[in-house]
Amino acid sequence: MSDQALQEEGGKASKKRDTWNHTTPVVFSPLFDWPPNLKGSILALTKRWVTISRNVLFLLMAWLVFRFFYPDMTHVQTLSVGWVGAIFLRNILFMLVITGGLHLYLFTFRVQGKRLKYDHKEQLDKSRKFSFKNQVWDNMFCSLAGGATIWSAYEVFYFWGLANGIIPSIGFLDHPVIFVLWLLVIPVLTSSHFYLIHRLLHWPPLYRRVHSVHHRNIHIGPWSGMSMHPVEQLIYISSVLIHFVIPSHPVIFLVHIYGRCLGPSFSHSGFEKLLVKDKSVLEAADFHHQLHHRFFECNYGTVDAPWDRWFGSYHNGSDEDTVRVREQRKRMYRNKPPA
Ligand SMILES: [Zn+2]
Ligand SMILES: [Zn+2]
Question: E strands within the chain?
Fold first, then answer.
């Protein structure tokens, strides 16, 4: 390699170090690989349900909530402040414990320092673009006041509809295979729904009025996940409407909605994994969505379904892709950034 090439290579490397504190390869689920990758596909479908993961946590929470809060459905046949309020308070509590817990662990007490943190930036923003001039307080307000309310509204209407025989459902003992199939299919389903609505949200009029609220968060943390305009929260959680039409189990509905409303705390945590005494205990954020928050017009979906690869909006984390995405963005907004 010539001296000049070496210098260029070195320049690129140092540029890369400047851009990120930590990176991971962006790898899509092998489920859609061609030729088919049977072993990889089975692992991609099942791993999250049989190892220590946020999905297992959501499944456990869903089962406990269904078992102890809905022992019989008669009390939710009529809308009343009592049980509706209980759902809202429970969801607020879940958000405070899980999202707040992640924030305390990673950003307040900084238990793992900057280890496995994608962004160099240590703290979240304190700037005028956020309410209260503080990103964390602003994000908490959007998540709790808007996110938990809309989440609870979906949950209330689901259980009210179920109790009144309007919404169809299946029993676990009668249809265990269908129950498991739902679990396997939900990640692909939610990933596809997210890609679709997220592309729509980047349509400039919707971006300016709605989605720009979420994109004020360039340096992200657990509370950024559900920090959205209420219209976006309504659209984002709407993937659960599938259970209003196609029969599933209430536990499946709860797992799905917990994934929507509490999953973003992990995916926006800014850290690849949670460490306890240098040992990795839980997968957290993926680099794919971190890149979306930095470069905007790329990686609209998730790695569970390769829509970004199929439609050319994929950013793999390389400098070459950064240049391509920036040029694409300039063309889209005629040199004016959308926010
Ligand atoms: Zn996001
Ligand atoms: Zn976006």
Answer: 273-276, 279-283
- Tell me the CA–centroid distance for residue 143 and ligand 2, in Å: 17
CA of 270 to the centre of ligand 1 (A): 11
Closest CA to 223 of 112, 93, 104, 86: 104
Which helix H or strand E contains 315, and what residues bound it? none
Instruction: Report how far residue 47's alpha carbon sits from residue 184's, in angstroms, rounded to the nearest whole number.
Output: 10
The rounded Å distance from CA 261 to ligand 1 centre is 12
Residue 5 has what pLDDT?
Answer: 42
Tell me the ligand closest to 211's alpha carbon.
Answer: 2
User: Structure pTM?
Assistant: 0.92
Q: What share of the chain is helix, strand, coil (3-state, %, to 5)?
A: 65, 5, 35
| Distance of CA 197 from the midpoint of ligand 2 (Å) | 10
Q: Where are the domains of the chain?
A: 38-332
Tell me the CA–centroid distance for residue 195 and ligand 2, in Å.
Answer: 10
* Count of positions (residues) in the chain: 339
- Ligand with the closest atom to the CA of 219: 1
Q: How confident is the model at residue 332 (pLDDT cuts 50, 70, 90)?
A: confident
Two tokens, residue 110: 């900084």
Rounded to the nearest whole angstrom, what is the distance from the C-alpha of residue 293 to the centroid of ligand 2?
7
Closest ligand (CA of 285) = 1
- For 260-318, the pLDDT digits (tens) are 999 999 999 999 999 999 999 999 999 999 999 999 999 999 999 999 999 999 999 99
- Lookup result for tokens 């950064």: 322
Amino acid (one-letter) located at 31: L
Cα dihedral 171, 173, 178, 184 in deg (nearest 10): 110
Identify the burial level of 270 via C-beta atoms within 10 angstroms of its C-beta, where 0-12 means exposed, 13-18 middle and 19 or more buried: buried
Complete DSSP assignment for 186-227: HHHHHHHHHHHHHHHHTSHHHIIIIIHHHHT-SS--GGGTT-
Torsion, CA 98, CA 222, CA 147, CA 308, rounded to 10 = -120
Ligand 1: distance of its center to the CA of 268 in Å? 6
Ligand located closest to 266 CA: 1
- In the three-class reduction of DSSP (H, G, I as helix; E, B as strand; rest coil), residue 71 is classed as coil
